[in-house]
Write a structure and sequence with these properties.
This protein has helices at 9-22, 41-49, 63-77, 92-101, 118-125, 144-155, 178-190, 249-260, 268-277, 282-308, 330-335, 341-352, 380-388, 394-421; strands spanning 28-29, 86-89, 106-112, 128-133, 160-166, 194-198, 221-226, 239-242, 321-325, 354-355, 357-358, 370-374. It has 422 residues and is an alpha/beta fold. The chain has two domains: 9-38 and 283-421, Aspartate Aminotransferase, domain 1, CATH 3.90.1150; 42-280, Aspartate Aminotransferase, domain 2 (3-Layer(aba) Sandwich). The strands form three sheets. A seven-stranded mixed beta sheet has the order 2-8-7-6-5-3-4, sandwiched between helices.
């Protein structure tokens, strides 16, 4: 017998989209959340300079890199972080798994919608998983009441309680406010629950106003991040984790043991290059600032197009996602046999070439009729070249979002025709 773990739905949709394109049809790639921006030249130069590195580093990560990560996040999160709290790994996904694996007799509580890999990782380890359902009206954020009920129930049967938060969120592009995080921290501390706060999109918070729950619950929060989103380096596989303040030495030893028996360490050349990414240099700061400006303008423009198409969605606040709500078309879609989000996504990919990821992939009910849209189907290299020549403008937004706008307009016409016919 074998473990029944489905492949990542995001990777699968990307393969399906590529197959359709090979047959000569246009696909509007809203399904795969990969940064459209090129890696900064200063990072590429740093990697070339260290390409000769071949040695294994410490399991916890290169000390020089951990120092820079601690300095960077101390400023970014507005709290004191030291290098002993930093773990470096081949991708933050590895760190999420390592943190969860360090605990026994654990329940993992996950707000839905949530990134596709949280629950499968917990299940692979053998932890119990509890999805905490949210709604459009709640901005897809868990409330203290939801968290209280969930923790109270889980505490009856499990010794270790792990809660995963993600802000800015995937798949919804929304952020928790400082007030919301403070209220959640009170409940978390009451139950002595640990938080794994996935903040991989934090530097891309559109207004550069990211707030971490670690500010209010530092002794119970793991923060995970890395280079994949804000540095455009997903394939580099460089993730970092910040352990809680005054971390239990046994927990740290457990993580080191798990890491040493699985991935050993992150790639040496990548770690050395990442020192440049986390250093306080003008080039990297401007590079990230330009990304935020472009993503905010494009995200709001695409959001307006989505609303014009008759769909519901909250305006994005960070990263590059929107969570579409098809419930306005529920009855007309039902009339043609489309009752779930997966059926809708399959149909619009087949008929309109619009690739969306269904809400069920993110832990939502298939009848919630939601789907994630990633607004990154544009040439990030050209966009950065345009913004480097002056201020970003509406004209530039329209220029770079043109293909995506066409996809949404096609989707809107398709849905409205179904509505008219039924």
């Amino acid at each position: 017998m074998y473990r029944q773990i489905s492949p990542s739905s995001t990777l699968l949709l990307n393969e399906q989209s590529a197959a359709i394109e090979k047959n000569g049809r246009q696909v509007f790639r809203f399904g795969f959340g990969q940064s459209p921006f090129p890696i900064s030249d200063v990072l590429k130069t740093a990697l070339i300079e260290h390409a000769y590195r071949k040695e294994y580093t410490q399991v916890q990560g290169l000390q020089a890199l951990r120092n820079k990560v601690a300095e960077y996040h101390s400023v970014f999160e507005k709290r004191k972080i030291n290098e002993d709290q930093i773990f470096v790994a081949p991708g933050s996904k590895s760190l999420l798994y390592t943190i969860m694996c360090a605990y026994t007799d654990a329940a993992v509580l996950i707000p839905a919608p949530a990134w596709v890999s949280y629950a499968p990782q917990a299940e692979l380890i053998g932890h119990a998983t509890l999805m905490m359902q949210t709604s459009f009206a709640q901005r897809y954020r868990i409330t203290p009441d939801i968290l209280e009920r969930s923790l109270s129930e889980a505490a009856k049967n499990y010794q270790s309680l792990l809660v995963i938060l993600n802000s800015p969120g995937n798949p919804d592009g929304l952020c928790y406010t400082a007030k919301e995080l403070q209220a959640l921290a009170v409940v978390l501390e009451k139950y002595q629950a640990k938080v794994i706060s996935d903040e991989i999109y934090a530097p891309l918070q559109h207004d550069n106003q990211h707030v971490s729950i670690a500010r209010y619950y530092p002794k119970g929060t793991f923060v995970t991040s890395g280079l994949s989103k804000w540095a455009g380096a997903g394939g580099w596989r460089l993730g970092i984790a910040i352990l809680p303040e005054d971390c239990d030495s046994q927990l740290k030893d457990a993580m080191l043991g798990i890491a040493s028996e699985t991935y050993s360490c992150a790639s040496s050349p990548i770690q050395y290059a990442a020192i440049t990414a986390y250093s306080n240099n003008v080039t990297m700061s401007l590079y990230v600032q330009h990304q935020r400006t472009i993503l905010k303008a494009v995200g709001l423009y695409i959001h307006k197009a989505v609303i014009d198409a008759g769909l519901h969605a909250h305006a994005p606040e960070g990263g590059f996602y929107l969570l579409l709500d098809f419930t306005a078309y529920r009855q007309s879609l039902k009339a043609i046999g489309l009752n779930t989000d997966s059926e809708i996504c399959n149909k619009v990919l087949e008929d309109v070439g619009v690739a969306l990821l269904p809400g069920i992939s993110f832990g939502l009910s298939p009848k919630a009729l939601c789907a994630r849209l990633a607004y990154v189907d544009f040439d990030g290299t050209l966009a950065l070249e345009d913004i480097s020549e002056g201020e970003w403008s509406e004209t530039l937004t329209i220029k770079h979002a043109q293909k995506m706008l066409l996809g949404i307009e096609n989707l809107g016409r398709y849905l409205k025709q179904i509505d008219q016919d039924n």
